[in-house]
Amino acid sequence: MRLDKFLSETGTASRTESKKAARAGGITVNGITVKDPSQHIDPEKDAVVYMGTPVLYQKFIYLMLNKPDGVLSATEDGEGQTVLDLVPEKYRKMGLFPCGRLDKNTLGLLILTNNGPLAHKLLSPKCHVEKTYRFECERPLTDADCDLLCRGVDIGEKSSTQPAKLNLFSDRSGEITVTEGKFHQIKRMFQAVCNKITYLERVKFADIPLDTTLKRGEWRELTDAEREQIENK
Ligand code: URA
Are both 212 and 201 inside the same structural domain? Predict the structure, then answer.
């Protein structure tokens, strides 16, 4: 495996960071400084040290799930079904957890992973990861409502919501893209303009669109390209 791929898969550094660190002499393999991060290593045998810290090899797994209605985005629940119940046991044993939460009645794209540092980074407000939701709402949206939703609304937090993008299909449906992930964020944004969400489905996360060939409740591993996309966010 390439050294830079290894560092990105272990959540240590992005390809760009690896390149910089290698140039600065900050990466060793078996005690030897490596200047070229495209060099191949054996992750099971070679001892890699990144900026003075040994890098432990752990294979990270990423699944894309099309979350159905009525399932909880949690790892355990005493009573209801969780998203973890929808994937084979072999993955559960690898310590997968949902990267962010969708409400019980929200459908669509959920990434499951065991890469804690990356999930933390993707969910951090500083990372500004885009999430796109298809919605339907109870009342027609006026131009003023759309303007407010896009500019930022008061949902009872310290500050207004960050700017959002809106693409209307009709005056009661469309897609909204936000960069935050506050609790019930979209539902609260619509409440703030005296409306109510009646349908919510996440169709994109971090530039990865929901694979529409997946039926509700189905999952697949991320492709190499998708994996690279989120690991290099
Ligand atoms: N916003 C919501 O209100 N609910 C979700 O599940 C996701 C975003």
Answer: no
Measured in Å, residue 179 CA sits from the centre of ligand 1 at 12
Rg (CA), the chain: 20
**How far does residue 174's CA lie from ligand 1's centre (Å)?**
15
pLDDT digits (tens, 9 = 90+) for 40-61: 999 889 999 999 999 987 678 9
Global pTM value: 0.79
Same domain, 114 and 151: no
Q: Of 55, 74, 94, which marks where a domain is finished?
A: 55
For 130-187, the pLDDT digits (tens) are 999 999 999 999 999 999 999 999 999 999 999 999 999 999 999 999 999 999 999 9
Our count of domains for the chain comes to 3
If you search the block for the tokens 């495209």, which residue do you land on? Answer: 38
Residues 181, 70 share a domain: no
- DSSP codes joined into one string, 30-90: TTEE-S-TT-B--TTT--EEETTEEPPP----EEEEEEPTT-BSSS--SSS-BGGGGS-HH
Pocket test of ligand 1: the residue of 69, 72, 99, 102 to mutate, having most ligand atoms within 8 Å of its CB, is 102
pLDDT at 10: 74
The CATH number for 95's domain is 3.30.70.580
